[in-house]
Design brief:
The protein has 150 residues and is mainly alpha-helical. The protein has one domain (8-148). Helix content is 75%, strand content 4%. It is built from six helices and two strands. The chain is globular. 27% of the residues are buried. GO terms for molecular function: fluoride channel activity; metal ion binding. Its main location: membrane.
Amino acid sequence: MTERGEGEQMRGSVRPSFRGLDVLAVGAFGGLGSLVRWAAGEGLPKAGVPWGTVAVNLAGAFGMGLLAEAVRRDRSPESARRLLWYGTGFLGGLTTFSAFSGEAVHLGAGAGIGYGVFSLLAGWAALRAGRRLSAGASGRSAAERRAGQR
């Protein structure tokens, strides 16, 4: 954080000086994300594959892709604040590595490894899809999107 309160340059973007409101917002959005995760776990079938955890983790990866691409394009303090509130807060509360890990162990060696591999690959694909959708919405060409991914 800077003494001026305006933000500082970091890797071509502006990092804002976070305030007390940011702490409250991250906590509030994190709590909201956790409630959505709980509701998904309660509302989706639990037989065999833990669909609630799969759903929230894939939705979170997709959401992070959308958000990351938007923040990458708009390197303002407000954009960094959105990443903090919605990425760290809501998506951090929504997604769950601990439940994923516990469920993989509970499924047993074969199914747990398959669940883990599927979750990682599907999460990566969801993140990429979110980034591509966000980049496409900005009107960037395919060549511009490829150049921005390097």
